[in-house]
Each structure stands twice: as C-alpha cells, then as structure tokens.
Design brief:
The chain has 2 domains: 43-276 and 392-453, NAD(P)-binding Rossmann-like Domain (Rossmann fold), CATH 3.40.50; 280-387, Dihydrodipicolinate Reductase, domain 2. It has helices at 2-12, 53-66, 76-79, 95-98, 119-126, 131-136, 138-142, 170-188, 215-223, 231-241, 258-267, 280-293, 310-315, 318-336, 342-345, 390-410, 439-453, and strands spanning 22-26, 29-32, 43-49, 81-84, 91-94, 107-113, 147-148, 190-197, 246-248, 270-273, 297-307, 349-356, 365-373, 379-387, 415-416. The protein starts with a helix and ends in a 15-residue tail after the last helix. The protein has 17 helices and 15 strands. The chain is globular. It is α/β, with parallel strands linked by helices and 468 residues long.
Amino acid sequence: MLALLQHYCFKNLNNFTEYFKFSKSEENTLVLKESEIKKPDGKLGVLIPGIGAVGATFIAGVCLVRKGFSKPVGSLAMMGKLRVGKGEASKDVEINKFVPLADLKDIEFGGWDIFEDDVYEAASKSAVLSQEDLMKVKDELVSIKPWKAIFSRDYVKNLDGKWVKNGATHWDNAKQLKADIEKFKTDKKISRCVMVWCGSTEVYQEIIPGVHDTLENFEKALKENNPHIAPSMIYAYVATSMNIPFANGAPNLCMDIPALWELAKKNKVPFTGKDFKTGQTFMKTVLGPAFKIKMLGVNGWFSTNILGNRDGEVLDDPDSFKTKEISKLSVLDNIFEPKLYPDLYKDYYHKVRINYYPPRGDNKESWDNIDIFGWLGYPMQIKVDFLCRDSILAAPVVLDLALFLDLAQRASLFGNQEWLSFYWKSPMHDKDEEPIHDIFVQSMRLKNTLRWLMNESPVTFLGAETYN
C-alpha cells in the first residue's frame, strides 16, 4: 500500500515534497511523516473577475446557504463524503469535516466587471435565481459592487461595457488590480485570498514566443502593452504575483502559458484550470467512459447547444467560439484513445455547435446524438437532451474551487493542481503529460488526494485490501 501511495503522490501531485517530508525506512518504500496544514483562521477573500450570471449566482447562493435558506447542492466540498479506514474501523466522513476547509461564514466577496451593476442588480438581470430568493439576501448583495474591470473588445467582440480601467499599459492596469485587492483586504480584514475567473470566453490564441514563454518576456510585454496579452492573463499574473491561488473558469489561453507557470513556481502559488465542466461536457465524461468500459464502438457524436445569457452572446462570435470548441472537442479523444482501440473509435466523427438563442436565457439546452455499435458491428443510437441551468451547475464548482485552492495554499502545495481536474473541460497538464478526462478516475484522484493530505491510505478498489 505504501508503494502505491508513493507512486500516486509522485505521479499525480505537484511539489508535495516541499511540504511533506519523507524518510526511507526500507528499500523502495517511503513513509509519510506527520505534517501540518495551516488552519483556516481569519477571513477568506474570494475574488471574481466577471460578476455576471455565474459570479452573481455563486455569491447569492453562498449568502443564502450561510443564512440557512438553502443547501449547497452540487458542492462536493460541502455535501460530499468519503470513506476512511479499513474493516470495522472504516467509516464515511463528511469532506468539509475531514479536511480543514474555510467556513462559509468567513468568506468575503470582491470582484470586477465591465458593467457597474452591484451583485443584486447583476443577479436580477441574469434571471437565474428568483426574486423571492434574491430578496432574502438583498442587503448583502447590494453592498457588493464590482471594481472597474480590464477589458478589450479585441478579445471579447460582442460585449461593450463602460466600467473599465484606462491604464496607459497592461502594466498600469495590473497595478490598478493590485491596488483593488490591497484595499479589499484592508477594508474587509482579509487574511488570504483566492481568485476564480468567471468572465467571458476570449478569442482563440496560441502561445507567442517572446511574449508568453518566460516571465521576463511576459513582464516586458506587459510594460510595452503587447496586443497578445489578454485581459484574463493580467488577472492571472496579478493573482500569482500576490501569492493568490488562481482558477481559470473559461477556456482562454491564460494561466497555461509558461511565463505564469514560472511565476507560480517562483512564488509557490497553486493554480488550476481550465473551463468549468458543467453540462454537456460533464455528460460526455460520464457516458464516454461507460462506452469504453463496455467495449462499445462509436461512429459519431453530434452535440449542439442553445443558450441566451451573456455567455451565449459572447460565443456567437466565431473567434470566441473557436476557443470553446477546442475545449469541448478535446474530451472524447482522450477518453476513447482511438490509437489503442482503432476497431472501436478510429475516425469517429465529433461535432460541437453552440447557438445563441436569447429567449432561453441561462436555461441552456444541450442535445446529443450518439451513433454507437455493438456485437458484430450492429448499430444503435443514444439521444441525450439535457435541459440544464448553466449557472446553477457552475456556481457550486466555483465554491469548491475556492475552498480547495485555499486548502492547497495552506498545505503549501503549488503549481498546477491536477487533482482538481474533476472540475475542468480542459484540465491543464505538463507538456509531456496527457490530461485525464474520465470523471470516475478524476473523482478517485480528488478523494485520494484529500486522504493523502490527512495521512489516510488511498482507496484503490483492488480487492480485500480495500475492506480489511
């Protein structure tokens, strides 16, 4: 078991040896010594670039939950359980009592948006939550007003907000973000922060040598106002430079550039991303592994979506859609592994469409037609019609990421937190690695990491060792 634990830690987690000290008790066996995770003392500031439908729904939801008006449904951190121990000593424990997570009552909210609406107004306009619910926490929501955001129509063409910063260069805007955060921390007596990008999908771009490749080049490009630096990159840079964990909820090229990985390593900051996995892609990471486990073939998978919120308006631009399309398309190849299973998945056809349809609002509908085949190649079909609520699915993801990133920071973990791939359409990974998209493997990885942090043995389901 210790050998399995050793392999798991070194294969799937980043930089644990900086905090957890190992000693060699016998050949090829590492024994984990006792270690401490800093207590979640004081207030946790959750910083949100983009207080639109998702951001406002998240904030309003947390306010409703901590006042006892509702339950945090959808949050693994708040409602999930895991088993620890073996045999008669085994028990199921609540995750939020097993690991030292921040208490919801200790969370303060701050953020930026290109529209001046306070969180109550933003939540009302997005029309995700009922007015009946919003009125219960109206006073709190009205008091949370966004700071001016960094914005460029070169990166989000279908929006045109006026509540924006006007620094002469990216570097100047970055300094303004830092000032916002420092004032927030002082005013609210914040002890530590996390940042979760809830803003729009930016236009597609690739890593540019001389701009994104090193921290030195990136900071030079910030000062020179280089056009290849997107707004989301500036937020990620500011967060990482201020030792604030960062999560990228959109498919933007952002925290996944080498310059910011370099900065995160230098400052020992954890990060994770990218692109919240909520509706249609969530279903793919459930159904895809099921087909593969059963050795059922797939000829084609056609996916389309209709939605009418701000996200749908942004994705109506082809350049922004390309960024989202690549994120959504990447999942199945990784799950099916066509090169390993050519008889089942070679040349399968995968198409993704997103259509802006204003009457639908935040209530997105995703429709999938899946052409599969079974014994002797005989064809079958599966139809999936998921009438989901986009922000209702995304809000608990934001909460979990904020809580788990704060935990990672207090455990002195840094760099890319692959154990949080459970939450992402496009989990970030080292260039020599492949991401894991199978949601069941992702779930086991996340829970085993929590066990590992608390010096509990992982659950492998290999046999009697799981139970004895």
